[in-house]
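Q: C-alpha cells for this one, please.
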Amino acid sequence: GVQKIVNDISKALIDKLGTSGLVSLYLSGTILTKDRVHNSDIDFFGFVKKSFDIEKEEDEINGFLDRNRKKLCGGFECRFRAIGLDEINGKKRGRISRFFGMGSISLTFPFWKLVFGRDVKFDKRVKPYSLRFRKRKAIGKLNFMIGKVRGGEDYFLRHLSKEIIRLAGIESEMVQNKKYEYSYVDIEKRFFKDKNHIVHEAMRFRRKKFKKKDMLNFIPEIEAYVK
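A: Here is the predicted structure, written as C-alpha cells:
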C-alpha cells in the first residue's frame, strides 16, 4: 500500500543522495495521516551539508520522481526539497529558505517523520514566525494562487482548498485563542458550531474531485473571506 510506496521512494532518494551530502531525510504532509485524500502529495525534506548544490540536486531528483510517477510513486505527485544545515543559521541557498522561510518550517517540523539519518532538532534551533506575520503570508499566498488560477494555471486548483484551511487555522489561533494545529480535519472541527464557515466548503473540495469551473465559482467566496 502507501507505506510500501513511501519506503520505496525513501530508499531511492537515499541511494541517489546519500553520497551528495544528505544528512537526514524526513517525510512530511498528509500522506500517512487522517488528512490524506485521493490526490495527496508525498513530500520529502532533506537536511544537507554546506557542499550540497540544493537547486541542482532538487531539480534532478524531482525530474526523476516525475518520470517515475507511476512506477515508483504509485501515481502520487512526489516532491523533494532540501534545507542546508548552514541555512538554519541564516544562509539562504535553496527555495525553502528563500520562498517559504525557516520560521514557517519550524511550525510544521514537529509533525515530520524521520526516515533516514539523524534528527536535526530544527524546531529547537529556529523560532517560528509570529502569528500576524503568518496571517499576512497566508493571505498573500492565497491571493497569488487565485491570480494564477484565474490566469489559467491549473496546477494551483487543488492547492487552494489547503491554503483556505490553513488560514482558518490561523483564524482559530487569533480569534479562539487556540494553539497551532497541523491537521486539516482538526482545524475544521474548531468551527463545528459555525456551519457556514468557509472551512467546511474547503474541506469538501479537498475530499472530492471537482471541475475547474466549480473552483472558479468558489473564488469570490474565498476573496470575501480573505478580505
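A few notes: The two ends are 42 Å apart (CA to CA). The chain has a mean pLDDT of 92.
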